[in-house]
């Protein structure tokens, strides 16, 4: 997976092949499946699970703390080559004094590992607070 160049050449009839021309090519990784691992941030660490489904470059699914699966976040994202970019949606409704909850992340993916960061921002009573965490996941068989 990842970007690389393919080279093609052609000829008319039985003549010699023409000059080779590089053509950029990028092959993405399919992230469909269950990924398990750990996260760490300013509030400590957790065991995390991503359950993903991919169609083309679009990825949907759920992400949650393995100890609290009932509080799963809906996940929507895209994969471009080996870069996975996603947004998590907070389950339920926010209290009226809180008007923003946003969680976005990016990860580098191989066929068996995913390593990245996610940043969550909440705005309540006119004050904003952001927290970032890093995560490392392994694809489950």
List keywords for this structure.
141 residues, mainly beta, 67% strand
Protein described:
With 141 residues, the chain is mainly β. It contains no helices and 10 strands. It has strands at 2-8, 21-27, 33-41, 44-55, 58-65, 73-80, 83-89, 98-109, 113-124, 127-139. The strands form 2 sheets. The protein has an 8-stranded antiparallel β-barrel. Strands 1-2 form a two-stranded antiparallel ribbon. It is elongated.
Number of helices: 0
Cross-sheet strand order for the largest sheet = 3-4-5-6-7-8-9-10
Please tell me what the overall shape is: elongated
> Fraction of residues in helices?
under 10%
Q: Beta-strand percentage? A: over 45%
What order do the helices and strands follow?
Answer: EEEEEEEEEE
Largest sheet features? 8 strands, antiparallel, barrel
The tally of strands reads 10
Average pLDDT score: 86
In short:
The protein is mainly beta and 141 residues long. It is built from no helices and ten strands.
Give the helices and strands, then pairings.
Layout (H helix, E strand, L loop, with lengths): L1 E7 L12 E7 L5 E9 L2 E12 L2 E8 L7 E8 L2 E7 L8 E12 L3 E12 L2 E13 L2
Antiparallel strand pairs: 1-2, 3-4, 3-10, 4-5, 5-6, 6-7, 7-8, 8-9, 9-10
């Amino acid at each position: 997976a990842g970007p690389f160049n393919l080279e093609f050449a052609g000829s008319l009839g039985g003549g010699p092949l023409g000059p080779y021309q590089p053509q950029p090519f990028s092959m993405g990784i399919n992230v469909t499946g269950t990924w398990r691992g750990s996260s760490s941030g300013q509030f400590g660490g957790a065991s995390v699970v991503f359950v993903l489904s991919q169609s083309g470059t679009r990825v949907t699914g759920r992400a949650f703390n393995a100890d609290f699966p009932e509080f799963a976040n809906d996940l929507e994202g895209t994969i471009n080559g080996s870069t996975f970019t996603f947004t998590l949606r907070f389950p339920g409704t926010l209290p009226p004094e809180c008007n923003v909850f946003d969680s976005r992340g990016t990860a580098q993916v191989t066929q068996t590992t995913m390593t990245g960061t996610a940043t969550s921002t909440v705005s309540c009573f006119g004050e904003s607070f952001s927290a970032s965490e890093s995560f490392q996941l392994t694809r489950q068989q």
